[in-house]
Amino acid sequence: DVLLNNLGENPATGVSATINSDDVYITINQATSTYNNVPGGGSASNQTDYEITVSEDCPDGHVVSFEMNITSNENSWVLYFTIELNAPNINFSSLYVDDGDDGILDPGETADIYVSFQNEGGSDANNTIGEISESDPYVTLNSTTYNFGTFNSGSIMTAVYNVSVTGTAPIGHVAEVSAEINADLNYINFTEFVLQIGFAYTNEGFESGDFENLEWEMSGSADWVISTDAIEGMYCAKSGTISHNQNSDLSVTLDIIENGEISFYRKVSSESNYDYLEFYINGVLQNEWAGIIGWGQVIFPVQQGTVTFRWSYDKDGSVSTGSDCAWIDDIIFPAGGGSANMGFVEGNVTLDGGTGNIEDVNITAGSNLTYPDLNGDYILPLPAGTYDVIASLDGYETATENNVQITPNQTVTINFVLTYLQAPENLVASVISNDVTLEWDITTLRTIATSKGKLNMGNVSLENRVELEESNSAQTTRSLTGFRVYRNNHQITQIHDPSQTSYNDDGLDSGDYSYYVTAMYDDNNESLPSNTAEITVVLDPPTNLTVELIEPYIILNWDAPSAERSLTDYRVYRNGSPIADVTETTYTDGDLPIGIYTYFVTGLYGEYESAATNEVTIELTEADDPLIPSHTALTGNYPNPFNPETVISFSILEGLVNTNISIYNVKGQMVRTLINT
């Protein structure tokens, strides 16, 4: 929808608009739409859809500029607006080696590799497939293709491949692996990662959204925090909020197995020459930065052994400038031991009722996403940390396990049962004039048997909600709390009374409308939509307009609409322009010079206007000229009521004396004399 706002006091009638753009990534298929009438101080949406086609190679985040030419019976305008277009953007995120031992891919080993990718784009990718390849003499890919299904925007999904390393592979060898990501609409992207043989690099991009990936330690006056002002991905680390003569420190200690380098990106916004981001290796200052410094990568040599890396934001005794903090991101540590940081959630999903597809259930933990297979079995690899694990499917109750602790090389089993949420049925829509009435049915809810159980895996223990068939299970009834009503795919109201199975949508403009209703359970679980009910609203116009000339007046008469519910007024037009709003089915026009006059009348339904009656035309000749009055008369004023001016029509017989026309206010006080002869 493209909403138009009328900032003036008077209505704009017969409004239509046409959009155009010269952007190379779009094609406009339907450029014009009508808005009918836009009331003064009000707004209106397009009655028919504009339609554009977006090119398959449109980049994510591309902004398209549109020009909009608007016309009405009264005026014309040119407006401008923009639309941001989104596309998938799937890239490599992280790698975990599951060799059943130390998390290091050694010569002679065969192992599963868990390769995580992130969709950093603003659009989902459907039917996504990740295919990997390499040409390394020491590495064989035993599986190369992984089917992700729907790769949601912002989510992280992990593919599982199997690789073998020859026994002759040299320690320290790095094998480059290419990944090709394909999805519907000809989406394709190439990304890459490396396999290190005999040792592992530890990367930290803070993409878990916390500090659980490594054994980070905080010290000083304030802890470092996770920030979204990242150089890559979604997250980075930012120093804590401190005052003068304080510091905020972040450190980690790792076993480095051979000499190498550490690299990281840093950004600073502080008082130049006084408030510094400092970087230390084993307590020795390597470098420091102060002032306004954008993202940039720095590299430092590291000796093998146990090494402590520390970042410190340190303030002096006065003055704060800029954001008064520092950021770090995308740290690549030297080769270290296999400190595996990946754990797993696995289990089974069962759908209780309904006709949902088990393979469409979303299993999420933070940004991480996976889907069950045809049997409902799933596995979700996760970096170490604490998560709320959620199973959801449209039309079913969402199930959540809170505060699930993921530890490296451990598997937590969670089984989910998703219960179907009964949807409204038999939706019917009826219309009288421009008022629509909706009615529907909802069946009685089943009673669901649920219980609390405890699952154990190694040293992992958690409370878990499971479906039981045994006795002594707690009986609970899922609560229907109301309904949501949708018109043309937009929610128009939420009903909080579950016993109310009807809704009146009154005062609509003419046009075609489509409705559906959903049921709400416990206020935050929404059912699938009911059937769709479609209706056409016609604002019945007045009919049979006739005209009669009774000198010096033109008298109009017409018949009321056949269905006049919600009708508020009639609007009379002369030669295409409105001259009066009246409540009766007659109008008298006068004080017109010689000429030809065409009239029609419309019906007003609140802020909306019907189509017109038949047109009638009358010609005033010299013999009928009302400019030479044949009698004296005061014929009224228009508009009435008025603000700030009105036109008063009157005629005075030629030669008449002692004539006075004065205007009085509601208190009987005379405010102006028009005629006094």
Q: Explain this structure to me?
A:
This protein is mainly β. 0% of the residues lie in helices and 58% in strands. Strands 17, 19, 20, 22, 25 and 27 form a six-stranded antiparallel beta sheet that branches. The chain has a five-stranded antiparallel beta sheet with strand order 18-21-26-23-24, with no helix packed on it. Strands 41, 42, 44, 45 and 46 form a five-stranded antiparallel beta sheet that branches. Strand 38 and strand 39 form a beta hairpin. It is elongated.
Q: What gross morphology would you assign?
A: elongated
Q: Please give the largest β-sheet.
A: 6 strands, antiparallel
End-to-end gap: 61 Å
Number of helical regions: 0
Give the number of DSSP strands: 58
As a percent range, the share of helical residues equals under 10%
Stretches with pLDDT under 50, minimum 5 residues: 445-477
Which strand-content bin applies to the residues?
over 45%
- Using the CA coordinates, give the radius of gyration: 37 Å
- What's the quaternary structure here? single chain
Provide mean pLDDT, rounded: 86
**Helix and strand composition category:** mainly beta
